[in-house]
Design brief:
Length: about 170
């Protein structure tokens, strides 16, 4: 059997004081930390892109979140339609929605023009089509285009949505 002093597991002759590889371990650890830190920094810079793009996208998200919808009330519209030789009526109450206070102010200022264009639009509709959900959705889309045209607005500051609060066919 081998004696404890006979075993030569390292090169103890080179190091004074019997330190077996202490300095070389320290050098290897420092080199590994430097390589890992460099790799992590490189990955961070490649993955994050430029700071300007990140700041711009953060500002856009903050603007979208901070915007609250604003509404303008379109008073009750009552329009008559001819269908099957009979006179029918469409009554609608709507809200115009925008994120811009300037657009809402302009909508209130130009409400007579908006109401005129909407009455003409509603008066040209097919009564049978308005009984369906699809017909109402098509009318809402056409009304949105009509309102923005009446106001002379183009993106991004436009009336975003029209909401029917009341829609009665008789």
């Amino acid at each position: 059997m081998a004696k404890k002093n006979d075993l030569n597991l390292g090169n103890d002759d080179d190091l004074p004081g019997g330190e077996s590889g202490g300095k070389s371990k320290l050098i290897i650890i420092i080199a590994a930390v430097v390589v890992l830190a460099g790799g992590g920094a490189a990955a961070f810079f490649f993955m994050s892109g430029s700071g300007e793009e990140t700041e711009a996208s953060v500002e856009e998200v903050v603007e979208e979140v901070d915007q609250e919808p604003l509404y303008a009330d379109v008073k009750k519209l009552l329009v008559n339609l001819e269908h099957g030789g009979r006179t029918h009526f469409v009554q609608a109450e709507m809200q115009l929605m925008s994120y811009s206070q300037d657009v809402i102010n302009q909508a209130y200022r130009d409400m007579p023009a908006i109401r005129d264009r909407l009455i003409i639009l509603f008066n040209s509709q097919d009564f049978a089509a308005l009984k369906t959900v699809e017909g109402k959705e098509q009318l809402r889309a056409a009304a949105l285009v009509t309102v923005n045209e009446a106001l002379g607005l183009a993106a991004p500051d436009v009336v975003e949505e029209i909401y029917f609060e009341n829609f009665v066919l008789q």
